[in-house]
From TrEMBL:
Keyword Zinc: yes
NAD listed as a keyword: yes
Similarity comment: Belongs to the zinc-containing alcohol dehydrogenase family.
Gene Ontology MF term list: metal ion binding
Cofactor: Zn(2+)
Name of protein: Aldehyde dehydrogenase
Organism (species): Streptomyces oceani
Keywords linked to the UniProt accession: Metal-binding, NAD, Zinc
Amino acid sequence: MGTGQANVKACNRQLSGLIEQGKAKPSWIVSHELPLDQAPDGYQHFDQRDNGWTKVLLHPDGG
């Protein structure tokens, strides 16, 4: 087993290209979208690995 950092810049360039071409849709992993004032509750669900809480997007404007 080895450890180290991923080449994030290279991965980001490749991934953004795939997204732009419509070949990758990362939004499928987002399970919840919450206003910022609900962040503590959302983090608790995510941290406890509650069923269905995979990725949370927080909206600062409440939207």
